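S.,

Sequence below, as promised.
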Amino acid sequence: MRAHRDDLLLLAASLLTLVLYLTRERALAGAAGFPLDDSWIHLHFARNIAEGAGFSYNPHHPVAGSTAPLWTLLLGAAARLAGASLLTAKVVGVATTISAAFLLRRAALASGLDGPAALTVAVLFL
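The prediction came back faster than expected:
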């Protein structure tokens, strides 16, 4: 029963963190966007991957210009399904972050931490 309660608490913490992020983003920038140019570069690579132009910045000219190739490939797969857009990148980013928090809590439990400590680790990760 405690595990389900902790899952719900972690989900609530995830949603609170997301609301705080979106509120702060809107206050600082006035609109949704990315904080750094690397994010736009990853999205551009992902668009090319999704469109069959390869792992490239300029279509069909492969380069190792992505600083996060695994993220770029994941984003490329999502772009293939839903289109390469700011919304796609944000949804995939939020989903992977929340998933990682849940996995981290489970890993902390498996390593011997008690329930409250494992939950704390996951919430701090968020």
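DSSP finds five helices and no strands in the chain.

Coffee later?
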